[in-house]
Amino acid sequence: MYQRKIVIGFDGSPSADAALAWALDEANRTGARAELVYADEWSAWGPATAGEHVDPAAGDMLRRAVAAARRTHPGVGVTATTVPALACTALADRSDRAGMIVLGTRGHSALAGLVGSVGAAVGAHAHCPVVVVHGDVRATAPVVAGVDDSPSAAAVLRFAARQAAGRGVGLRVLRIGTPDGRRAHAAPFGELVAAVRAGFPGLDIEAETVRDDPAGALVTAGDTAQLLVVGARGHGAVRGLLLGTVSRHLLRHAGCPVAIVHDAGRSGPVPRARRAPLVAGV
């Protein structure tokens, strides 16, 4: 069960609706609360007094979304907030008080460009796991974890194992090997997998090494998965999976939701126009 809430980046677009639906199911499954966050980017760029005005249309949109969420998921505590800030700032700022951030891949207004610089900023700088919802959600498919020899590998495997065990499905682990095929890190990888097996004794785990085309291998794995889990920081072949062109390829083309997991204490500050106060809640 999560100790902190799930934060959903929401702008009323179909992509945000899909992210909200996924997040509500996750909250219902884990006992977490849910908070919809609308980033009012126009106020963030405007005069200091602009943030004092809340767009009535945005407020109505959030109230409707909260009411619908409470009807479909009556067991989940749902609230909504408008923040005068860039989307990446609003969400990253709330990540240190959240158990998870959930986003869609396509949006308008505050969440426009999530697959580009905004998505990269949220994924790279958040202090909690970030799930980007797109593609198909296959309830009976396995969870797939992509790891290398970076410090985030253990956190990625723990998160993926919890997701798989909680959903009652198997876990498939793909280790991205070194470009020259050396097996210098095979033993640590084996130890990590063994630790997950010990911690989740009833979980069906398959593990294999992939040395060529990490992005392609992960996208292919995502075609038959319900969740693809990777680290925010990597070494070698997976360095930049979420910070460069490979990351955008993964977020654009993976056939299932993608979870970005951070090694504890390694996230940095996100660039911002200004630190914005909370404006309104529902």
Automatic annotation (TrEMBL):
<dbReference type="InterPro" id="IPR006015">
    <property type="entry name" value="Universal_stress_UspA"/>
</dbReference>
<feature type="domain" description="UspA">
    <location>
        <begin position="4"/>
        <end position="134"/>
    </location>
</feature>
<protein>
    <submittedName>
        <fullName>Nucleotide-binding universal stress UspA family protein</fullName>
    </submittedName>
</protein>
<feature type="domain" description="UspA">
    <location>
        <begin position="192"/>
        <end position="262"/>
    </location>
</feature>
<comment type="similarity">
    <text>Belongs to the universal stress protein A family.</text>
</comment>
<dbReference type="Pfam" id="PF00582">
    <property type="entry name" value="Usp"/>
</dbReference>
<dbReference type="InterPro" id="IPR006016">
    <property type="entry name" value="UspA"/>
</dbReference>
<dbReference type="InterPro" id="IPR014729">
    <property type="entry name" value="Rossmann-like_a/b/a_fold"/>
</dbReference>
